[in-house]
Amino acid sequence: MTGPGFYRSRSLWLDRLDGDPLTPRPPLPGPTDVDVAIVGAGYTGLWTAYYLRRADPGLRVAVLEREVAGFGASGRNGGWCSAFIAMDREQLARRAGRGATIALQRAMFDTVDEVGRVAGREGVDCHYLKGGALQVATSPVQLARLEAGLRHARQWGMGEEDQRLLGRNEAESRVRAAGLLAASFTPHCAAVDPARLARGLAEVVERVGVPVYEATPVTRIRPGRVDTTRGPVRAEVVVRATEGYAATLPGLRRSVLPLYSLMIATEPLPEPIWEEIGWSGGETLAAGGHLFTYAQRTRDGRVAFGGRGAPYHFGSRIRAGYDRDDRVHRRLEATLGQLLPAAAGAGITHRWGGPLGIPRDWTASVGLDRATGLAWAGGYVGDGVAAANLAGRTLADLICQRDSDLTRLPWVQHRSRPWEPEPLRWLGINTARLLAASSDASEQRTGRPARLRGRLLKLFLGE
Fold first, then answer.
1. Sign of the dihedral defined by the CA atoms of residues 154, 157, 159, 165, in that order
2. Is the pLDDT of residue 232 over 90?
């Protein structure tokens, strides 16, 4: 089933990789000893390997990947290199203090720029364009939610320069969305081609001396050892960088929940259509209610558009067939046409999806258990393009035992409680998913927030 054609079919981004055959690199040759074994060749694993070698060029590091670098969420996401990070600020502040929680957000602001700096320095042509992010409101309920979000941002140290509300005229000067009332804007976001970033990082990691062993399934992670189908890898430190795929490993089924997010991409739109839409500043775009939708304008003039709403599959199952859901893809196409009527009827050339990694408290984390040598990072809830870079830098400092500002951030050593056993998590997540859809429909119909539904959504969707 796997092969270059299969990998290209996983997303628009993987399909458009000119000059990259997507042929797997050589697998692990057999039993191996290293200092650090990294499981997963997505953003987290590759950034960790990169910064480890920069910190200590003599360190023996190996990256192990079941498929090919960028196969998972790193090659399929919406291309938002954003300063958003999955965290419960109040919970982190209770544990580490308000100042530390604000410092984590500030570190994420810098991380958006760090990704661009490294891409430029290392020659990774990932179409990095820092145009900021817009979240549009097209109903009074959505506008009230934007205003509440802005008040919350102010409480956590974010000023006008970090996030501000645009009135209708200013918002329409950036994008002419149907029914636009206002928009929230933050400059701390860049659009990228995610697969180009992931595949480029893999080449950089190899260039600095770290082997990336593809087609090497990992069957178990344990202290001091990674079991693979190609033999064991012994290591002082083992890094789990598997995001939603962690649920496939023994003992980790309830550690993160693989929840699917799906996307579509239009054909390249003609210039008159873009003149009508007006979306020319390089911003990423978010819209909608509880079933969050997100988009970017690609370099070749497409709209890449994604959103929530796909079902959670019993037992945290992950299968290639789940990457596509006709019902959800049709809804995304309809939503795109409603939001940007000028793009309605455009040909849809790609439909795809993949699993996100969702911790029980919807809070990302990074850490190292020195007693066992087991390290981890993830739980990004779909906002991992930049967060994985910060995680990689932090893991490098932890592994190299460097006390730094990064290792003192409050997501370090945070541990989320496990998800409920089945069938509770299947019932809870899918009930919340249906409530999210009904909440959006109710709010659109009545113009009032769905308060009871909102409280239930908070329980399972972290809203």
1. negative
2. yes
pLDDT digits (tens, 9 = 90+) for 252-296: 999 999 999 999 999 999 999 999 999 999 999 999 765 679 999
For 311, counting Cβ atoms within 10 Å of its Cβ (0-12 exposed, 13-18 middle, 19+ buried), the class is middle
Cis peptide before 449 (omega within 30 of 0): no
- The whole-angstrom separation of Cα 71 and Cα 297 is 22
How far apart are alpha carbons 36 and 333 in whole angstroms?
Answer: 44
CA–CA dist 126, 196 (Å, integer) = 5
Share of the chain residues as helix, strand and coil, in percent rounded to the nearest 5: 40, 20, 40
Joined tokens for residue 219:
């069957």
The first and second tokens of residue 125, run together, are 């042509």
Residues 305, 333: Cα–Cα separation, whole Å: 8
* Beta-ladder partners of 257: 358
H helices of 58-189, in order, are: 89-96, 98-122, 140-155, 168-172
Q: Which of 378, 398, 401, 403 is nearest to 388 (CA)?
A: 378
Give the Cα-Cα-Cα angle 50, 306, 8 (nearest 5 degrees).
60
Q: How far apart are the first and last CA of the chain?
A: 37
CA distance 238 to 227: 11
Rounded CA-CA distance 440/165 in Å is 22
Say yes or no to pLDDT of 44 above 90. Answer: yes
